[in-house]
User: Fold this.
Amino acid sequence: MPDHLHGLIGVDGRDSLSQLIRDYKRITAKMMGIRWQRNFFDHRLRHDESLAEKSAYVCQNPARAGLIRNERDWPYVFIPGKGD
Assistant:
């Protein structure tokens, strides 16, 4: 998306999501000149939600916004283990 980022991130009990996001923003700001907003919004998967459901939502977002016709046309997707 041109004005925000969606990510599905798994964090174990030893890591801090806030620290991971802070470091990611700091690195991408330095390397790519991205100007990030100060905070972020997170949503934990609940018992009745599936990872596949949330992944589908994220992948369909650019098409819903009218930026592409088909979600497979969006070039800005990174899935670890799939051609990385």
Remarks:
- The mean pLDDT is 86.
- The helical segments are 17-32, 51-64.
- The chain has two helices and no strands.
